[in-house]
Write a structure and sequence with these properties.
368 residues, alpha+beta, Thrombin, subunit H, Pdz3 Domain, 2 domains, six-stranded antiparallel barrel, six-stranded antiparallel beta barrel, 21 strands, elongated
């Protein structure tokens, strides 16, 4: 049943007379795929984002920027369902909520295989589901790293770019054009000062161009969504050519660079939310570290009872290698540890004073 519902919704989306040839078949396919597992969210009388269904019982993943007051998930012919808080993951800014009275089989829950499990090419088009509708974006790289406050956890980041002002894109849900879920945007690079701007504190503001307010009473008018998409990509001159994002230039609009967490963190969050406890567990050995001038990551703090404490690692010890991978600095340490699993055994080479030691640790769990 959920497949037919998705087809009906997609048909409504694509029925707008304003589309013409401005929206490509690839756009249509991407929208259809994204809407198989997602629905719009409203809070305090306005659209605030999208939720992604991860379980047929009505469990939705939202970015916290979409949650204010009593949120509702809106689907189909004015069907709305209150969302109750279940769990949250601080590092990613994702929140798990349950739709009360959600009818099973109305949407297709996101499957693990539908998260990104393949390399994404530079300049590959992706779809961003904003509060006012979908828009095109481009993938840049998944090789960035960032620091999450206040935990100082180093995480992987994917970079994307838009031809839209920065205040319009925060919290948007991202999908590849073949339907893979990329996560939510968590920060944008302000072109005025080149500093990342977190997008978790408040819902994105409205814009007359892309995010014009759509009354909740019009929730069934799904063609409004595709109309906003078409308006966003009007031809730049005569003719019918779509204003897709060019490969080398972005035309007259200011370029917005934005970030979402990497696929490894997204998979960890979704799997944690689907677990019986709904907790997201991060691998840890219970230390803080800094770069060592001579190479390595020097320990500045050891948590009591942690994996590091259990093998008698001390403040001042310098980690040199984990499972054969060199640790040249704290960034290398974070990159190595992000791919470890709770309960996994790891081999570590470290320096204590002038002496090299080897030890085996069992990775612990940090429930953020």
């Amino acid at each position: 049943m959920f497949l037919s519902a998705a087809k009906v919704c997609a048909a409504l989306l694509l029925s707008s007379q304003a589309i013409g040839s401005q929206v490509t078949e690839a756009d249509r396919h991407a929208l259809t795929e994204a809407l198989r597992c997602s629905a719009r969210v409203a809070s305090i009388g306005k659209w605030t984002g999208y939720g992604v269904l991860i379980d047929p019982s009505g469990l939705f993943v939202l970015h916290r920027s979409a949650v204010a007051g009593q949120p509702l998930v809106v689907f189909g012919q004015n069907w709305s369902y209150p969302l109750d808080y279940v769990a949250a993951d601080a590092p990613s800014g994702m929140i798990l909520m349950r739709a009360k009275g959600w009818p099973q089989n109305s949407l297709a829950p996101l499957q693990p295989a539908e998260m990104v499990d393949r390399p994404i090419s530079q300049s590959e088009p992706i779809l961003a589901m904003l509060t006012g509708g979908p828009m095109r974006a481009e993938f840049v790289t998944d090789s960035r790293m960032g620091l999450v406050a206040p935990s100082n956890r180093m995480v992987s980041l994917s970079e994307v770019k838009f031809e839209e002002p920065l205040h319009q894109v925060g919290g948007a849900m991202l999908f590849t054009y073949d339907g893979r879920f990329l996560g939510a945007l968590v920060a944008v690079l302000d072109p005025r000062n080149s500093k990342p701007t977190p997008q978790a504190a408040a819902a994105p503001r409205a814009s007359a161009k892309v995010m014009a307010s759509i009354p909740l009473s019009e929730a069934n008018a799904a063609d409004k969504l595709i109309q906003k998409f078409a308006e966003t990509h009007q031809p730049t001159g005569g003719g019918e050519q779509t204003r897709a994002l060019p490969r080398k230039t972005y035309g007259p609009q200011a370029l917005t660079v934005a970030y979402t967490y990497g696929p490894d963190l997204l998979r960890r969050v979704i799997n944690g939310f689907l677990s019986p406890s709904h907790k997201v567990l991060y691998p840890t050995i219970g230390i803080y570290c800094v770069d060592d001038k001579s190479g390595g990551a020097t320990i500045t703090k050891v948590a009591a009872g942690s994996a590091a404490d259990n093998v008698h690692l001390e403040v001042g010890d310098t980690i040199m290698e984990i499972d054969g991978e060199p640790v040249r600095n704290q960034l290398d340490f974070a990159k190595v540890m992000r791919n470890k699993s709770v309960g996994q055994k790891i081999n570590m080479r470290y320096r204590h004073g002038r002496t090299l030691f080897f030890t085996i640790l069992t990775v612990g769990a940090d429930a953020n």
